[in-house]
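Moderator note: this is an archived Q&A kept for reference. The question asked for a predicted structure of one protein chain; the sequence and the answer are reproduced below.
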Amino acid sequence: MSLLRAGDYKLIQKFAGPTFELYNVKKDPSEEHDLAKSDPAKVEELKKLLLAWQKDTGAFLADKKNEAYDPNAKEQRGGGKGGQGGGKKKK
C-alpha cells in the first residue's frame, strides 16, 4: 500500500488491485466515504503526484494486479499471537 496526503485529501493505492481510494480527511476523518468513483479527476491529479514521488524515491511500483493475492485469505503474520509468535519460549 502507498498513500499520498495533499491538502484535505488522501489517496490510497492498494497494490492488490492496483486500486485507489480517495478520502477528504477534513470532512471525513474516519475515512468512511471513498470518493474515487465520484471524483476521478482528483484521483488522477493525486495519482500523478504519487507516481512522481514513487519514481523519485525508487519506491515499489504496483503496475499490474497481483494474481496471488487472495482478499479472503486469513491474515498470517505473527501466528495470530498479537505479534508475539516469534522467538524462544519462556521457561
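Archived answer notes: The CA atoms of residues 57 and 80 lie 33 Å apart.
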